[in-house]
Amino acid sequence: MGMQSFDEMVESFYRSARAIAKASRRAEARSGLGPSQIAVLGYLEHGGPLSIADLASLECVSHPTMSRLVSGLERAGLIEKAASKFDARSRLVEVTPSGKQRRSDAILVRRNLVETLARRLKPDTLAELVGALEQMIGEEAPRLV
After folding, report:
1. Count of C-beta atoms within a 10 Å radius of residue 39
2. Which of 11, 28, 41, 50 has CB 3.0 to 4.6 Å from 54, enough for a Cys bridge?
3. Coil, strand or helix: which one is 97?
4. What does the radius of gyration of the chain's CA atoms come to, in whole angstroms?
5. Where are the domains of the chain?
6. How far is it, in rounded angstroms, from Cα 59 to Cα 70?
7. What burial letters (b/e) apply to 104-136, b meaning 16+ CB within 10 Å?
8. Beta bridge partners of 83
9. Strand residue runs (E) in 5-90
10. Computed from CA positions of residues 64, 40, 90, 76, in that sequence, does the dihedral angle turn out positive or negative?
């Protein structure tokens, strides 16, 4: 393989990142949850209870889209709605124990995929890749996850 130009390397990086993201989505699908569902359960587990508007903002989707997503998670028994302590007209969403378990299972599937891919690399190559990715993400990391 000859020396690649910057543009060729960026294109290769893009294709590789897409392939990893696609593999991650396929792996997550085996858990029965989609990426947005996993994300919502995570927001609720770590920052909940939250309103549908808050969840929509965090996931960068419209309120109606989040309402549909929340309704599906509620029907599956993974979340429940409760009255707000501060506003009787407002309902907050919180994760159920079943929702925590399903998210944990889905995260494990994702982690196993990453671990499988990481094992294909030599330890020093993996360390260099991790360092490069952390440098790329920098301060954006909390907002990108």
Report:
1. 17
2. 50
3. helix
4. 19
5. 33-144
6. 12
7. eebbebbeebeeeeeeeeeeeeeeeeeeeeeee
8. 91
9. 79-83
10. positive
* Whether 73 contacts 40, CB under 8 Å: yes
Q: What is the pTM of this model?
A: 0.74
Architecture of the CATH domain 33-144: Orthogonal Bundle (1.10)
Amino acid type, 9: M
Q: What is the dihedral of CA 117, 131, 127, 119, to 10 degrees?
A: 0
Element (H, E) at 92: strand 91-95
Residue reference for tokens 């993996």: 126
Residue 38 near residue 104 (C-beta atoms within 8 A): no
Q: d(Cα 145, Cα 140) in Å, to the nearest integer?
A: 9
